[in-house]
Amino acid sequence: MLNKLLLAALVSLSALSATAQAAHLQRIKNRPSIPNSQLRSLPASSPRTGLEPAFATAPSSVVVPPAPHTVFRDGQLVEEETGPTQYDLQSNGTEQARLHVWPDGNVSTVWVMSNSDETTGYTDRGSGYNQRSQWLGSNYPAGRLETVRTGFSNYVVTENGTEFISSHRNKNLVTADGKFVLRSLRRPAGQTTWTESDLPSVDANGQLWSKLAVDGNTIHLLALSTPVGPTPTFTGAVYKGLNGHPLYWRSKDAGATWDIIGGVIPGLDSTKYAELSSDDYAISARDGVVAVGIFNSFNDCKIFKSSDGGDTWPDSYTIWDFPLEKYKIDKGYTVDDLGGADPNAPSPLSVFTVDGNGSLAVDAAGFVHAWVGEMYVLDSILTDATSNYYPGVNGLLYWSEIKPEELFEIAYSDDWNGNGVLDFTSGSIVGYGCGLSSQPAGAVSDNGEIYVAYSAAVENLYDTDQGLNFRHLYIVRSLDYGETWEWPPLDVQYATDPEPDSLISKLTEGVWPSCYKKIDDKFHVVYQRDYSPGSTAQLTGVQAGHDSRWVYLARPTVGTKEPLNTLELSFTPNPANDFTQIAFNLAQKAASTVEVFNLSGSMVVQKSLGSLGSGPQFATLNVASLQNGLYFVKIHAGSHTGVAKMLVMH
Known about the structure:
Strand 6 and strand 7 form a beta hairpin. It contains two helices and 39 strands. The chain is globular, with a radius of gyration of 24 Å. It has two domains: 24-556, Methylamine Dehydrogenase, Chain H (7 Propeller); 566-648, Immunoglobulin-like (Sandwich), CATH 2.60.40.3080.
């Protein structure tokens, strides 16, 4: 597996810089799909801030039973309700950080909560918060944590036990003038009250739609500059040449102070992008590695990586190369601009891309993993200030830094009746702004297991009143570091139904999962569950009784393999000239070898170290024949493995 690695960098003598070629898509054979003649496009969903004015709807309640289908059940899986919400939109796109597992086994989570409905404009909307020690006794929060109405909460806990929540509010609480401010809640370990404040800003127009990641006591935050239009919702400005500019914050003291405020990540700027939108970006961090993903449907899907905790960002990868550079909605394009006709496209101007719903994770070896739904988009009407997308496109994509030139299709909405096609009626697919199988939330364990929760539309299971198909939550996993993926996946709605033949859990909607990025003996997930398809807040469906639930579950893991990176390697010197010394520690005697891989993934050095005893070890490596550049060094010692980067500079 590792001999096919491409490192995340191209090296010069003055700096590290990486821009990998776009990944090649590998599809699942015989994946079911909707015939192109039946694909129907929808206008792109308008970004929601959660601070919109009131509106009125009528409730829905009628459902029909599902067709028989073979599913994977798990008797150990139990769902637990953490709290209610009337506001039924948890994200405009990518996964939010919403879950923490404490050392004593307790669990904390936040979600977007409101006790009022759309007729009042969700005036009490904010961060719902609860702990497992409370919800197991049916103790649910009475309302939001904040003193003002906020939108789209994220939640992390630092190594010292400080809890931190980010969201956004209207800058002008009275007039709601289309400008926004990042809001925070902070509670150090041992305290019972939260400190509420606005985060520092670099722009008078403010920012919104924040994303959080945590690494030790360092908090990493990504947010979008308030864009221009559509008014009156957004009255911001183009920031440094980019309308909707992702900006970076960093706090090294658990959110007490911020040493980076509104920083620009090189390449994630106006040199590559003209406009970006709500929640189409993600951030993840671990052991000094910070990864940022851009999943916008009308731009290149890219990963930006820092290996020094956010100080520098030398590495980037293109997951999917969108054929139109720096595209702006309503600009227009031709088939020739797309590089010719796509025989699989539902229309001549439809463009294959990602659907804006992505997830990121950094593993124990420092490699980045990404998941995103696939999509076709269309911008053929150049006067409507929007675009169209095809919600019937089916497929969940997986990319990793281990095989950066490959993009794998790993999951999909399944063919329940086995006729070879997906039988969704015209207009029955909820317009969440994503594909049939999307909204991923993924994590990687220290022993090479990868778990991904995602939401997928269910064939032949629909609400007859609205004519919309339900979506279920699924969990798919790889037990070999992403080489293969188990099928069928776990259908959470079926697996948690106490009666296999009942409809109690099956007739529920499962959307917007978020997972805890550290997998122990369980894969921990929260998601929104309710009894009608669609989202009232998103104007894509009307909820029965407007009553949704935020739900927690934990799937047991396998946990039998050796951790991926059990040997910590260090080099002296690094950068190396002619020789470098590798230092590592062995717990017991083991036969050991060292391997070195270049940027093309070829092994350039292989050396036996013989049988080494327990304790500190030092191995000298001759690199005089290697060209200047970045290399990947791997040491095998019995069943243990160490992996690290080495720079050669003669």
